[in-house]
Amino acid sequence: MANRIERKSRLGEDLLIFWGRCSKILYQYVVVAVFLLGAIGVAVAALAANWLVRPKRPVAGAKGETYECGLETQGPTWVRFKVSYFLYALIFLLFDVETVFLYPWAVKFQVMGWFAFAEMIVFIGILVLGLWYAWKEGALEWK
Amino acid sequence: MEGGASVAIFWLLAALTVGAAVAVVMLPNIVHSALYLVLTFIGVAGIYILLEAEFLAAVQVLIYAGGVAVLLIFGVMLTRRGHIRQSNPFNSYHVAAGVVSLALFILVVLALGRSPWHAFPGPWPEDTVGAVAEAFLGPYVLPFEVAAVLLLVGIVGAILLAREEKGEK
Amino acid sequence: MAGGGNVVATWLNTWGFPPWLNSLLTGIIYLVGVLAFIFLNVIYLIYLERKVSAYMQQRLGPNRVGPRGLLQSVADALKLLGKEDIVPRHVDKWVFLVAPIAIFIPAVLLYAVIPFGRGLIAADLNIGVLYFLAVSSTTTIAILMGGWAANNKYALLGAMRAVAQMVSYEIPLVFSILGVVMLVGSLKTTDIVAAQEDVWFIFWQPVAFLIFFIAANAEVNRGPFDLVEGEQEIIAGPYVEYTAMRYALFFLSEYANLVSVSALAVTLFLGGWQGPWLPSWLWFIIKLYIMILLFMWVRWTFPRIRIDHLLKLNWKFLLPLSLVNILVTGVGIKVYQWLSPGRW
């Protein structure tokens, strides 16, 4: 039991040491957090100002209907969409993941040798192969 | 930052992340679930920032909140289904699922409790992005290239699936 | 603490606050500044856009409210403030209500890493450019929220198109920035500006600038890439069911994003706030408005592009071109290093 408590306190202490040491970078993110909260606050305040000033009439009759240029809407909206959207999103995601590798590489590019450059060319080459396949199979066409 | 404030912010972010994750499972509308998943991703990114892993946090937002979430919502849009408000239904395996989840939770907690936790020795690296690059292109070059192959397989698989879809019509 | 050369943080340091209070106050001061910047710019930009488009089409544009119509946008904003807020019966209520707030958050957050002048930056993050890209990528979610929740076919179609377009063009955008990052060796926006003291990167990376400009146009959904809103077919796209202040927030965010992407272009390619004689912030504003006018010129010159052409342009032209640009830049840097080993 004593052993367990000791371990627990050590864990807490380590965390405190850890967080006590992180400082310089985190202070910049305090600014980002202020921006985040400020953005929410201003948006809510703008909506509140609107709520104070605007006329409050009930949404009755045709006013609450779906607006499609005066025609009544036909059938449900949330229907099945075509697969092309999904395919583009998937190819996007794969290249998006590639950026995760490319950005650190670009930052260190100048201090690294030809070998690192070659490694990245192989990496990009494999993905270009994928792009070429998608192209050949007509996956990049909008149908 | 002051230790106490960090710990408080950590609990806040943890509550946000876990709460959103619970909402993902519990909500009956699958689009709502996907949107709460975005909140979960962002909460995790916040925890990364608290750990000063800012590169990882940016990647978390870029890939998961901006990419995977879009993919998920598009995926929801193209599946055939009944009414959207009942698109994330419960099945009848409540008890079994509960037992498995609880067992996993206990296992994770035990593993965490038994791990020796130590603070990182030496000065904290400021340039996390550079460190990641050196790891990729140095000792971990093989997994790095394998990742490219994995992405290639992903592209090919997606295209094959979509082609089958076309044949079906 | 927040940034060595940061004007506001340095000034606050003289008061001897504890560091957390210092960065909190820095954040608040910059937030107020940025919000004022956004609101003033957007109000004026809407007027400017209407005037520019009018002159390009040999019209007069707004000229009744105030001298030369200068108060037109102010009047419009006040009108929107007093408008009825209609929530149609069929919408998915909570998502519908939250979407305008969700789109405003990234629009404001983007300004945190923009260097407005010498030492005028809210948070000089190590991952500056990547932060910008990550935060701006979340805009797609907010548009999907608005378009989906409206339960309106035009809105959903508009949102789906918008997101397909935005995610597609994000790739060339991201890759075009890589060339600049390779030249600088840092993701910090301040480092990127500092590296352009002698030569702007538009001269080293003209192709990247072109790719960036085209992709940025698509990212902010402006003409010729405005089929998201396509007024003649789907009215206002994802925003069709929104009224009053909720609509205003979408509109505001759209213009705020135009300003921030122009600011990023200035930072990456046009030397940021660098320039002789004039104060640094004034140089930044001048370059910013040159970029914005360029965006407006393009919007009112080209007809709207069809969706298959739009995606073809992206995947079959811009993406391969951006990859080639990375390759050429890499070889160029390596050859330069090899020829002049002393400098590196």
What would the CATH topology of the largest domain in chain B be?
A: Four Helix Bundle (Hemerythrin (Met), subunit A)
Based on the coordinates given, report the CATH architecture of the largest domain in chain B: Up-down Bundle
Counting DSSP H or I runs of 4 or more residues, the number of helices of chain B is 6
Q: In percent, how much strand structure appears in the residues of chain A?
A: under 5%
* Sheet/helix structural class of chain B: mainly alpha
- The percent range for helix content of chain A is 55-70%
Keywords, separated by commas or semicolons:
heterotrimer; A: 143 residues; mainly alpha; 2 domains; 4 helices; 69% helix; flat; B: mainly alpha; globular
Structure report:
The complex is a heterotrimer of chains A (143), B (169) and C (344). Chain A has helices at residues 2-21, 24-53, 83-108, 114-136. By secondary structure, chain A is mostly helical. The radius of gyration of chain A is 28 Å and the shape is flat. Chain B has 169 residues and is mainly α. Chain B has two domains: 1-90, Four Helix Bundle (Hemerythrin (Met), subunit A); 125-169. Helices cover 76% and strands 0% of the residues of chain B. The radius of gyration of chain B is 20 Å and the shape is globular. With 344 residues, chain C is mainly alpha-helical. Chain C has one domain. The model of chain C has no long low-confidence stretch (mean pLDDT 85). Classes of the chains: A mainly alpha (143), B mainly alpha (169), C mainly alpha (344). Chains in contact: A-B, A-C, B-C. Chains A and C meet through helix 2, helix 3 and helix 4 of A and helix 2, helix 4, helix 7, helix 12 and helix 14 of C.
Provide a compact summary of the structure.
The complex is a heterotrimer of chains A (about 140), B (about 170) and C (about 350). With about 170 residues, chain B is an all-alpha fold.
